[in-house]
Amino acid sequence: MLSHSQEWLDSLLAQKGFSEHTFSAYKQDLETLDFFLTQSKISLNDIDEDYLLLFSAFLSKRGDSKRTIARRLSCIRQFFSWLFEEEYIKENPAELLDTPKIPLYLPEVLSLQEIQNLLSSPDLTTKLGKRDQAILHLLYASGLRVSELINVLPTDIDFQRGIIRVFGKGKKERLIPIHFLALKILTDYLQNTRSLFIKEGEKEDSNLFLNRSGKKLTRQAIWKLIKRYTIIAKIKGIVSPHTLRHSFATHLLEGGADLRTVQVLLGHSDLAATELYTHICQSKIQEIYEHAHPRCNPKD
What we know:
This protein is mainly α. The chain is built from 12 helices and 3 strands.
């Protein structure tokens, strides 16, 4: 069984008075996750949003019904929330997991036009708009996890070399190149906008991106920010910070990047997590083929 899982189940039994049937179902859900992690050779501390996505795909491929999958993911979300509250883990990978709506097969990926619309949506006449533009460009230019983005320091960016230093899960360091346009926008933000968020007389926060009070942004704030600009850009469907990460990886592969390079850029310890994006590319190839091939679209 997973670490601390029995402790959590016992607490549920004591606090909520679960029936024997519900208790058994939750125990089975955790055993299913434990089986998946064992097969994937992933520890509980290493699981992140990508692996939760893979877990949902695993459940679907093995034939679990949508109702069962929703229940299992709901259980997992509650379990990780409890682990985080009890300080057994430093980050909650299921914090923004929306069980009824998450994709069961492939992650949502934005088209190039949708990316352009999203990146162009902030109002650049305001300090918030300029900050948000920098956030959106950096997310798409680097494929950062939202937990990595909110912890970036100005000193983590080497503007001369065009590289950002990121500390991912397990404090593992990786270096990610950033294209010229994103660097230009980040430079302008640092030189002309970031200081506007710092209140006079108060100690300056060291993080790159600050909120209205001059403090570090939260994961929830980034989520709400992207949701707001998704509406402005008139993009349908659910778009999250991870959608930009998915789009970053998929567009790189479609542009000719090799799988190992994308694995390094994303900070995946397991290539299986990165291989998910090859299925996205393959599905797009299939769609283009069926649309373009004359045998698939006979005119007669």
